[in-house]
Write a structure and sequence with these properties.
The complex is a heterotrimer of chains A (about 675), B (about 220) and C (about 250). Chain A is of the alpha+beta class and about 675 residues long. Among the domains of chain A are: about 160 residues, Flavocytochrome C3, Chain A, domain 1 (Alpha-Beta Complex); about 130 residues, Methane Monooxygenase Hydroxylase, Chain G, domain 1, CATH 1.20.58. Chain A is about 40% helix and about 15% strand. In chain A, the strands form 5 sheets. A 5-stranded parallel β-sheet of chain A has the order 5-2-1-9-17, with helices on both faces. The longest helix of chain A is centred in the middle third of the chain and has 27 residues. Chain B has one domain. In chain B, helix 1 packs across helix 2 and helix 7 runs antiparallel to helix 8. Chain B starts with 7 loop residues before the first helix and ends with a helix. The termini of chain C are far apart. Chain C has 8 helices and 7 strands. Chain C is an alpha+beta fold and about 250 residues long. Chain C has 2 domains: about 110 residues, Beta-grasp domain (Ubiquitin-like (UB roll), Roll); about 130 residues, Orthogonal Bundle (Fumarate Reductase Iron-sulfur Protein, Chain B, domain 2), CATH 1.10.1060.10. In chain C, strand 1 and strand 2 form a beta hairpin. The chains are: A alpha+beta (about 675), B mainly alpha (about 220), C alpha+beta (about 250). Chains A and C meet through helix 3, helix 5, helix 6 and helix 12 of A and helix 1, helix 2 and helix 3 of C.
């Protein structure tokens, strides 16, 4: 099947408006006759479920957590971008579009990104109307801050908890619809298959995580907003439950999986402390507004620090290497995430890592504290040369800006970041790849839609900070609810979809067989044992730097590990009860397939772009080297084993942006 | 407005209103009692006024009795409901880590105060009602007609040491009850603002000084007569 | 570190449940409390026993999924953290640690340490929202300036993660801090004024129907709240409720 991205004709700026004007609508009376299933209740799924219900559709929403409010969007810290230009610093829809395409290393679809930039301003209006308490200035108007990879301040935020506030906003809209009876909410339910009837997605099979019951749910369309697959690395900043299962099952039922190798490794996370580590904690990118990243200039100082003989604060300025400022004078500490992460890895690989494992660099607030302190002292008419006073005033400013992050750091690492620099190291954070969708956010299976991080669409090979929240809400509030009408308009006479069909029988049967196999397997190793092994392969061979040999090894090792998993995994308990090990096993089984496709995709992409860095393809300065012949989306069709997956290419055409070398120097 | 007492916040509000009333009553009771230490004649006059004024006797007194009964009954109702809200208790609970003993044991300090009130009514209120409304002696005079009887009766009651000791204990529980109850009443009616810090100090002072004053009066009369 | 864990085990909602002792050794002080439980579970699985079920998800203190009543306190002895951020360095070698589910009639146990907190969701369905359609055709976000002080207070109230520590800590199992925070967030913002009366009446009604206890202002909730939600929010809800009762 040829990929048709269904990008509307016409000039870039008019595409979305024209498209909305021309697609089919469903009249309000008919919407009542149509059911839509939404899986996932994060920013994308939650906002989509609420909006679809407002429009009049009957919505069934599913989440595996105990409440929709717990979806992992809640953990996003820094902010949300919008081309409001409230700061008057030259921002515009075009500029947000341009920054996003460039930030994504020219691997995203122009029309989608432009639409995203276009609706971004509406998101802010909408959220404020919902009562989302964004940070404000003293005049009562909204405040902005700056994020990596851009030259304007367009990021709206709510302290370090922007994701939480936006999700609670979407959750409140969802609650309103649940209260009205327009959304039926299924908490603690995990989707385990998509049911395709006559080539159209007509329902799902879900497992009630409390009772273990396998349930059939039918609908006229199915929307997946199930997030990313970062947990394929075992250690990531994702929540423990974040998984690829819904997306992977969709893939197995015919949805193409695009660019799986595009993974974002976030530069500012708390370093791993030991083998017991279950997950990694992100420190918001916003910290790079004020924090300066460095390692010692001399190996002898590194050794002294590791041995505990030298404190970082004792090291003189000239003995420090602020390597981002050195290498990228224009953007300095605010280079995009992929660039910052690779630079940290480069220093640590060269032996300059500052903790016991050699995998940490400093993020230092001392100069910001001093700068703010002096500013405050000046405003208050106090002595600007009183070092202790300046430090205290400066710490107060930093506390109001990043207090919750500093507290979180101190609780985890047991060091006071106001007094000594933080230690950070990159960690898996976000996956730009995902289910392939067209301009309408429809997958290659008619009636099956995919939104938010779960799809591949808007970020190309690298995502800019504060853009994930923007995409999730844009998809859920403003894009999907309209584009899905175009499809559903043909379904107004279909009537309710029966769950008594051979397709539902078959899907339920395959789910049950999988579960029974796992429960009765009686192997010798726990699920985590396999998950950790998979994570190690992924991190070492498909992580921040990849090469042909490593990827080939990864493909073989993952396939072997998968065989071993099915033979030797041990899942205690039974199927018909609350059984977290079983839930985990089902998720890891899918990660073990995805991991292989991931490596295969990375192997095929013989270039470096954004989060995908192939050691063979770098410039003389060690920067990512894109190759013109790879200016396409790699969409994989399922054919049984991951190694048999068939590649389909969607060429990326840039008509409004000149594809250039991405430089932040 | 209807059904406000059926809501948790409504009940809380009613509890606070009765508490305010009782705290004001307590204050005036204390002021009048203090007169017995400073000036027995004034004490007698004020007591006679309070005991015979129709507004006090026929309006305020029933309101007070209603307030007391309401506060107790509501207190019990709340306690029963609250116990029901946790059907299985913790194997280990460290309440001291997050709240004061007083706040967690209002029901017990309240129960002791109830026992105290029963004794107190038997000691003073019932004889008073008997004299005035059953025997019909509204004069307030001693049997020999030589001056008012109130001061005499008061000092007489504080002769036995057991009663003094019991009263003192009652006041200690009253203090414990007030140490939480004073601020709690304000919080319940929604007063929590920039004045709260100051009010907290005042509440503490009130909760300690008033019961301490009552203890002083009891001891004063015991040792002076 | 070597520890003795006393953990509540309960097979399902109908089981009676009991405390069971588990010795555990070689615990690193750098582990989080949940990572310590991961170690225990790995050992139990390898021994062929059933692992201890507990709720958790983000493990960075924001999703509100983790709970646990540890040594008599919600989220354990540390302040301003959830259980997932509680680190073993807060304990000493040889300690006995009690681990129980959050207890309230309104939070029935599902299994072991997992409880059902959907009562919180139902309170939100009753009014935890502003009725604005998500059309995007609202007024410009900067059309209504909001006093920074109010905006900051609204944000502080909105940081509630809905974990239920307030209910678990309250001797009355009262949900007033949770509901007070949501009511306050909207009461402090101009957008929330239109529906203020119905919102507070409906949310309190639902709260009462769920079987939470009455607030007696002990303040335990505020102390144990991992997000430091202030008692002022309860006072504000009391005011809002009284105002609404008089109006409605």
């Amino acid at each position: 099947m040829a990929l048709d991205s269904k990008i509307p004709k016409g000039p870039l700026a008019d595409k979305w408006t024209n498209h909305k004007n021309n697609i089919n609508l469903v009249n309000p009376a008919n919407k009542r006759l149509i059911d839509v299933i939404v899986v996932g209740t994060g920013l994308a799924g939650g906002s989509a479920a609420a909006t679809l219900a407002e429009l009049g559709y009957n919505v069934k929403a599913f989440c595996f957590q105990d409440s929709p409010r717990r979806a992992h969007s809640i953990a996003a810290q820094g902010g949300i971008n919008a081309a409001k230009n409230y700061q008057g610093d030259g921002d515009s829809t075009y500029r947000l579009f341009y920054d996003t395409v460039k930030g994504g290393d020219y691997r995203s679809r122009e029309a989608n990104v432009y639409r995203l930039a276009e609706v971004s301003a509406n998101i802010i209006d909408q959220c404020v109307a919902q009562g989302v308490p964004f940070a404000r200035e003293y005049g009562g108007l909204l405040d902005n801050r700056s994020f990596g990879g851009v030259l304007v301040s367009r990021t709206f935020y709510a302290a370090g908890q922007t994701g939480q506030q936006l999700l609670l906003g979407a959750y409140s809209a969802l609650n309103r619809q649940i209260g009205r009876g327009k959304v039926k909410m299924y908490n603690r339910h995990e989707m385990l298959d998509v049911v395709v009837v006559d080539g159209k997605a007509r329902g799902i099979i879900a497992r009630n995580l409390v009772t273990g019951e396998i349930e059939r749910h039918s609908a006229h369309a199915v929307v997946l907003g199930t997030g990313g697959y970062g947990n394929v690395f075992f250690l990531s900043t994702n929540a423990m439950g974040s998984n690829v299962t819904a997306a992977w099952k969709a893939h197995k039922r015919g949805a193409y999986f695009a660019n799986p190798c595009y993974t974002q490794i976030h530069p500012t996370c708390i370093p791993v402390s030991g083998d017991h580590q279950s997950k990694l904690t992100l420190m918001s990118e916003s910290l790079r507004n004020d924090g300066r990243i460095w390692v010692p200039k001399h190996i002898k100082d590194v050794e002294a620090i590791r041995a505990g003989k030298l404190k970082p604060t004792d090291l003189a300025e000239e003995d420090r290497d602020y390597y981002l400022e050195r290498r990228y004078p224009a953007f300095g500490n605010l280079v995009p995430r992929d660039v910052a992460s690779r630079a940290a890895k480069e220093r640590c690989d060269a032996g300059y890592g500052v903790n016991a494992t050699g995998e940490a660099v400093y993020l230092d607030f001392a100069s910001a504290i001093k700068r703010y302190g002096k500013e405050q002292a000046h405003i208050k008419g106090l002595d600007e040369n009183d070092a202790a006073l300046v430090k205290q005033l400066g710490q107060d400013v930093v506390r109001t800006k990043y207090g919750n992050l500093f507290q979180m750091y101190e609780k985890i690492v047991d060091q006071n970041p106001y007094e000594t620099p933080m230690m950070i190291y990159p960690a898996v954070h976000y996956t730009m790849g995902g289910i392939w969708v067209d301009y309408n956010l429809q997958t290659t299976v008619p009636g099956l839609y995919c939104i938010g991080e779960a799809n591949f669409s808007d970020h190309g090979a690298n995502r800019l900070g504060a853009s994930a929240l923007m995409q999730g809400l844009a998809d859920g509030y403003f894009v999907l609810p309209y584009t899905i009408g175009d499809y559903l308009a043909h379904d107004i006479r279909t009537g309710p979809i029966s769950t008594d069909s051979k397709e539902f029988d078959e899907a339920e049967k395959s789910v049950r067989e999988n579960i029974e196999h796992l429960i009765n397997n009686n192997g010798t190793h726990s699920v985590d044992h396999f998950h950790k092994k998979l994570g190690k392969i992924m991190w070492n061979k498909c992580g921040m730097a990849r090469n042909e040999q490593g990827l080939k090894e990864a493909i073989t090792e993952i396939a072997e590990l998968r065989a071993e998993f099915w033979k030797d995994v041990k899942v205690p308990g039974t199927n018909d009860e609350f059984n977290e090990e079983l839930a985990k096993a089902l998720r890891v089984a899918d990660f073990l397939e995805l991991g292989e496709l991931f490596a295969k995709d990375a192997l095929l992409r013989e270039e470096s772009a954004g989060g995908h860095f192939r050691e063979e393809y770098q410039t003389e300065e060690g920067e990512a080297k894109r190759r013109k012949e790879f200016q396409y989306v790699a969409a994989w069709e399922y054919k049984g084993e991951p190694k048999d997956a068939v590649l389909h290419k969607e060429d990326l055409v840039y008509e409004n942006i000149e594809v250039k070398e991405r430089s932040y120097k | 407005m209807s059904g406000i007492l059926n809501s948790s916040i409504g009940r809380k509000f009613a509890m606070a209103l009765s508490a305010f009333f009782l705290m004001i009553f307590l204050l005036q009771h204390f002021v009048i009692n203090s007169l017995s230490v400073i000036n027995p004649d004034s004490f007698n006059e004020v007591s006679h006024f309070m005991g015979t004024n129709w507004l006090i006797q026929y309006i305020m007194q029933p309101v007070l009795i209603f307030g007391v009964i309401f506060h107790f009954i509501m207190g019990f109702i709340l306690e029963i409901r609250n116990k029901k809200a946790r059907n299985i208790s913790y194997a280990k609970n460290n309440g001291g880590a997050n709240s004061t003993w007083m706040s967690r044991n209002m029901i017990y300090s309240g129960l002791f105060i109830l026992i105290f009130l029963v004794i107190h009514f038997i000691d003073f209120w019932i004889p008073e009602i008997n004299t005035k409304y059953i025997q019909g002696d509204m004069s307030g005079l001693l049997a020999d007609g030589e001056g008012y009887r109130y001061y005499e009766e008061l000092t007489h009651k504080f002769v036995p040491i057991w009663r003094v000791a019991f009263y003192c204990l009652g006041f200690v529980f009253l203090a414990l009850h007030l140490l939480h109850g004073f601020m709690s009443a304000f919080q319940s009616v929604g007063a929590n603002n920039k004045y709260t810090q100051g009010l907290k100090g005042f509440g503490k002072a009130y909760a300690i000084i008033i019961p301490l004053g009552f203890i002083f009066i009891a001891l004063f009369h015991h040792f002076n007569h | 570190m070597n520890l003795t864990l006393k953990i509540w085990r309960q097979k399902n909602a109908n089981d009676k449940g009991k405390m069971v002792d588990y010795p555990i050794s070689d615990i690193s002080p750098d582990m989080s409390f949940l990572e310590m439980l991961d170690v225990l579970n790995e050992q139990l699985i390898n021994k062929g026993e059933e692992p201890v079920a507990f709720d958790h998800d983000c493990r960075e203190g924001i999703c509100g999924m983790c709970s646990l009543y540890i040594n008599g306190e919600a989220h354990g002895p540390d302040r301003g953290v959830t259980t997932c951020q509680l680190h073993m360095r807060m304990f000493n070698d040889g300690d006995t640690i009690y681990i129980e589910p959050f207890r309230a009639a309104a939070f029935p146990v599902i299994k072991d340490l997992v409880v059902d907190r959907s009562a919180f969701d139902r309170i939100q369905h009753a009014g935890g929202f502003i009725s604005v359609n998500t059309s995007g055709n609202t007024i410009d976000a900067n059309a209504i300036p909001v006093n920074k002080h109010d905006a900051d207070d609204a944000f502080a109230a909105a940081t509630c993660i809905g974990c239920g520590a307030c209910v678990a800590s309250c001797k009355n199992s009262s949900a007033m801090l949770f509901v007070g925070a949501k009511v306050s967030q909207f009461a402090l913002l101009p957008q929330g004024q239109v529906e203020a009366t119905d919102r507070v009446l409906n949310m309190v009604k639902q709260m009462d129907e769920e079987g939470f206890g009455n607030c007696t202002n002990t303040g335990a909730c505020e102390v144990e709240c991992p997000k430091g939600i202030s008692l002022e929010n309860i006072a504000r809800m009391n005011r809002e409720y009284l105002k609404a009762s008089l109006k409605g």
